């Protein structure tokens, strides 16, 4: 049994399976729903097996076609790849369940159902391929696969606003990835390889390498929507259908960020990056404050959640200034935890927003007046998911912020402390504003009955988001398999 | 080497021209063209990289990468054109300048 688990390359199946299923759902649109659901189930299973294999035999690598590295393509399932594969499988499975009911088999929006499944499976396959890629060019190709599928998914609604958001997203994506690709080209010119591990060993602090790094970081920052390059995000995420918004916010943003994390810790350590780290930290701090303030001002639930994503992305970028020698592991782990916690919480929130839109007929926050009674389950799910966004214990968001604050104190960068605290307060404020409307003592007449698949899957995800902190030790242990940081994570306060 | 540098330099100039047009021009077709010019600039840099090394023998890896890049850029152009045509059908305009407030519902 152990033999079987270790000798199969499960993470490779996690790429091939969704891509194959995407083609199948495209060719047989009538069977799309059950093919899609079965694939989601199988992917969840594969993720568990891949993690089991990695726990037994550490990080696995495959060299495609047995061509060795300078020329060949290497696929690698290290800790970061595994936790991302797992969280994608979890969120993807729940979103798939939700989509079964959100996109019904019959009705006048039938074509949307037919297009959703192939595109969503392509996106899923692209994400999984991205996480296991170990060379810069492969990362570019997979990132483009993800972007292309996302563009089509945003356009699914078909209205002019959705189309405009999709096209804007396409241009932004293209701009970001071409800047990244130019950086890859410059690196290739000097070192004649695009393999992450080889480059990490060879790189030295030259002016050309700094130019390449600036281009790549700028491209990826644009794609992960860091302030002030976040302008495209709220429209794109708010215009898409709810399951798509959930996936975009929870997973697609993280794709560009994962590449950045890999570059920073595996390729660029030899370069003098402290100034760039401070710049990213500054932009991250501004993102936290600006995103939260904008979220506080929104009249629509989906826009509020989208601006909250802008703020949460800010926290992810605090990793870069905070990762100094002794806090390297703590900051890295905090970033990974933040990604996972945000993926669970934000996906659940977007799905609830979709259900509320479906039942209340609009996603204006004021329309939620008195909704706490008739659609109380939804409000509860929303609140549970929001705990991790605010960062209340025992959610994953709390532990990530704890590690960030810890790293800030250890490295003497105290100014991140008030930023994190005020971000937390503002998050509390914009969530409380939604709840304030929901629990107004107003009699609302009737809401249509909500199908159970639109109600319960988001609840599962939000409970996981809430309790994530309690089980955070295991995911962290898995993430640290073959990680680029030393394994000691500081968890005590030491000013 | 100087020839390769000339190509790489022109590639970067093309990239900059495309970048400028993509940010400044409002007509969707111009934006799509600009993105393509940017892409071509990057590909030229890659091709120039292939000329380095032993005299007379080109490095095939950048050429393979450019082929992949061309496929990606073709897909993006196709999707962008479809979206642009659709927007033109629905709104009658050729820009993305849609009033955000009215577009919300």
How would you describe this structure to a colleague?
- The complex is a heterodimer of chains A (495) and B (105).
- By secondary structure, chain A is an all-alpha fold.
- Chain A has three domains: 111 residues; 140 residues; 203 residues, no CATH class.
- Helices cover 72% and strands 2% of the residues of chain A.
- Chain A has a two-stranded antiparallel sheet with strand order 1-2.
- In chain A, helix 8 runs parallel beside helix 11 and helix 16 runs antiparallel to helix 18.
- The longest helix of chain A is centred in the C-terminal third of the chain and has 33 residues.
- Chain A is globular, with a radius of gyration of 21 Å.
- The termini of chain A are far apart.
- The relative contact order of chain A is 0.10.
- Helix content of chain B is 78%, strand content 0%.
- Chain B is elongated.
- Chain B is built from four helices and no strands.
- Chain B has one domain: Orthogonal Bundle (Helix Hairpins).
- Chain B is mainly alpha-helical and 105 residues long.
- Chains A and B meet through helix 6 and helix 7 of A and helix 1, helix 2 and helix 3 of B.
Keywords, separated by commas or semicolons:
heterodimer; A: 495 residues; mainly alpha; two-stranded antiparallel ribbon; 2% strand; globular; B: 105 residues; disordered C terminus
């Amino acid at each position: 049994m152990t033999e079987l688990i270790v000798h199969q390359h499960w993470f490779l199946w996690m790429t091939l399976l969704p891509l194959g299923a995407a083609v199948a759902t495209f060719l047989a649109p009538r069977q799309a729903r059950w093919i899609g659901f079965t694939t989601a189930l199988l992917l969840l299973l594969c993720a568990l097996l891949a993690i089991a294999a990695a726990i037994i035999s550490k990080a696995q690598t495959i060299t495609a076609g047995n061509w060795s590295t300078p020329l060949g393509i290497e696929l690698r399932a290290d800790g970061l790849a595994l936790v991302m594969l797992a969280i994608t499988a979890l969120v993807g499975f729940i979103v798939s369940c939700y989509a079964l009911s959100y996109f019904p088999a019959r009705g006048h929006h039938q074509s949307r159902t037919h297009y959703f499944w192939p595109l969503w499976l392509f996106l899923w396959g692209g994400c999984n391929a991205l996480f296991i890629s170990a060379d810069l060019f492969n990362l570019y190709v997979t990132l483009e696969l993800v972007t292309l599928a996302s563009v089509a998914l945003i356009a699914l609604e078909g209205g002019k606003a959705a189309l405009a958001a999709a096209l804007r997203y396409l241009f932004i994506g293209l701009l970001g990835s071409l800047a990244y690709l130019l950086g890859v080209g410059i690196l290739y010119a000097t070192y004649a390889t695009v393999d992450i591990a080889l480059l990490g060993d060879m790189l030295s602090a030259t002016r050309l390498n700094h130019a390449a790094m600036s281009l790549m970081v700028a491209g990826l920052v644009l794609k992960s929507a860091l302030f002030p390059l976040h302008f495209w995000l709220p429209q794109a995420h708010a215009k898409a259908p709810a399951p798509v918004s959930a996936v975009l916010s929870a997973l697609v943003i993280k794709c560009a960020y994962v590449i950045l994390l890999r570059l920073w810790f595996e390729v660029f350590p030899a370069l003098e990056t402290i100034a760039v780290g401070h710049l990213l930290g500054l932009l991250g701090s501004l993102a936290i404050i600006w995103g939260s303030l904008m979220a506080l001002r929104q009249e629509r639930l989906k826009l509020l959640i989208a601006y909250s994503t802008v703020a949460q992305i800010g926290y992810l970028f605090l990793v870069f200034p905070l990762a100094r020698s002794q806090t390297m592991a703590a900051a890295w782990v905090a970033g990974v935890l933040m990604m996972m916690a945000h993926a669970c919480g934000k996906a659940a929130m977007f799905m609830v927003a979709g259900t509320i839109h479906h039942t209340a007929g609009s996603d204006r926050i004021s329309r939620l007046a008195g909704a706490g009674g008739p659609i109380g389950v939804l409000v509860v799910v929303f609140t549970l998911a929001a705990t991790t966004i605010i960062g209340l214990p025992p959610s994953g968001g709390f532990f990530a912020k704890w590690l960030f604050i810890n790293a800030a104190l250890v490295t003497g960068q105290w100014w991140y402390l008030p930023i994190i605290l005020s971000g937390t307060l503002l998050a509390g404020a914009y969530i409380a504003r939604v709840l304030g409307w929901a629990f107004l003592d107003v009699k609302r007449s009737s809401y249509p009955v909500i199908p159970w698949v639109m109600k319960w899957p988001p609840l599962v995800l939000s409970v996981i988001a809430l309790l994530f902190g309690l089980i955070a030790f295991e995911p962290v242990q898995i993430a640290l398999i073959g990680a680029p940081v030393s394994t000691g994570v500081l968890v005590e306060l030491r000013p | 080497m100087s020839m390769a540098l000339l190509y790489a330099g022109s590639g970067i100039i093309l990239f900059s021209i495309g970048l400028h047009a993509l940010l400044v021009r409002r007509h969707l077709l111009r934006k799509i063209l600009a993105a393509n010019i940017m892409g071509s600039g990057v590909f030229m840099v890659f091709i120039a990289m292939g000329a380095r090394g032993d005299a007379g023998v080109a490095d095939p890896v950048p050429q393979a990468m450019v082929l992949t890049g061309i496929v990606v850029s073709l897909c993006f152009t196709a999707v962008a054109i479809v979206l642009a045509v659709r927007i033109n059908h629905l709104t009658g305009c050729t820009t993305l300048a849609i009033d955000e407030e009215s577009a919300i519902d």
